[in-house]
């Protein structure tokens, strides 16, 4: 999804082209206006996109893929990160959960988990090493060596074999089966090809050696509100009397929406995560994992407050892994690599779900 300003602002300033996604982002940064959060969708990471651009899958983005004549523009750095974050933290855990329920032991779920485990290594060890240098640039080919394309293709075959039973609209869009499974469903297309803008591709890229503006009092309050909601949810999951879940996703959206530049918006964005709990976890196990999630979220908040993009991103990856543990349950092939203070990235141990759970108090 793309950032937009009102037409009246553009007309007042007589800026040609400022209603384009890239133009509005630049304009918002220049005027110190709020930059709406960047979010990806299932359509942004769909097989339709991968089939159209099998090599450079993140070269072109579209703000309106369901339109008769979709707009196209060069994917910005923040849009590319949003797509890979959505894949790893939201779309693929849902895809694997679907495979586990509808094709258990059929091989498709184990294959997808194996591909996800490789992606997770790239998003932890390799990313941390890059972050220690200067950042985590995501090019047009992405950072996952097309493992994401393999997962989507596997899921498509599984959903087709299951007669589309139980698949959400998002999964159907991602595997390009919505029209087959739901007659009358609104179609969409991959972003049309177009000229590539190198400068646009750098907008919002993760760079750990740049100046970051100090958080305002309001931004600090919104940041702390994200963790208050997270901690409330943990207390609720642990069965504390009178506890109620907080609006974690709404809190994060509000914090990101307070950004006044695209760089700050990218910095404020936490890795996507899914709030689903695998039904095989016991209440006691859920409480342990929720406390792990909470601890990683607190680490992220502290790093953001310290304007430390490197360790904020590492903490966000740790938090993502804690949610994947909750999402996918007892999956032996999925290896977790949580950061360990004082150890080099390559020394962070690869652990199974049982080893992670056994290490928790």
List keywords for this structure.
mainly alpha; two-stranded antiparallel ribbon; disordered N terminus; two-stranded antiparallel sheet; 361 residues; globular
Integer-rounded radius of gyration: 20 Å
Parts with pLDDT < 50 across at least 5 consecutive residues: 1-20, 26-32
What best-fitting shape do the alpha-carbon axes yield?
globular
Could you estimate the helical fraction of the residues in percent?
A: 40-55%
Structural class: mainly alpha
The count of DSSP E runs of length 2 or more, i.e. the number of strands, is 4
Main beta-sheet strand count, sense and barrel state: 2 strands, antiparallel
Strand order of the largest sheet: 1-2
Distance from first to last alpha carbon: 40 Å
Strand content: under 5%
Encode the helix/strand succession as letters. HHHEEHHEHHHHEHHHHHH
Count of helical stretches? 15
Quaternary structure type: single chain
Quote the average pLDDT: 89
Number of domains: 1
Describe the structure.
There is one protein chain. By secondary structure, this protein is an all-alpha fold. The chain has one domain. It has 15 helices and four strands. It has a two-stranded antiparallel sheet with strand order 1-2. Strands 3-4 form a two-stranded antiparallel ribbon. Helix 5 packs antiparallel against helix 6 (147-161) and helix 10 (217-237) runs antiparallel to helix 13 (283-305). It starts with 6 loop residues before the first helix and ends with a helix.
Q: How is the secondary structure organized here?
A:
Elements (H helix, E strand, L loop, with lengths): L6 H7 L7 H11 L15 H6 L7 E2 L11 E2 L2 H26 L5 H26 L1 E2 L10 H15 L7 H6 L3 H4 L16 H4 L4 E2 L9 H21 L10 H10 L4 H7 L14 H23 L3 H20 L24 H6 L3
Antiparallel strand pairs: 1-2, 3-4
Helix pairs in contact: 4-5, 4-6, 4-14, 5-6, 5-14, 10-11, 10-13, 13-14
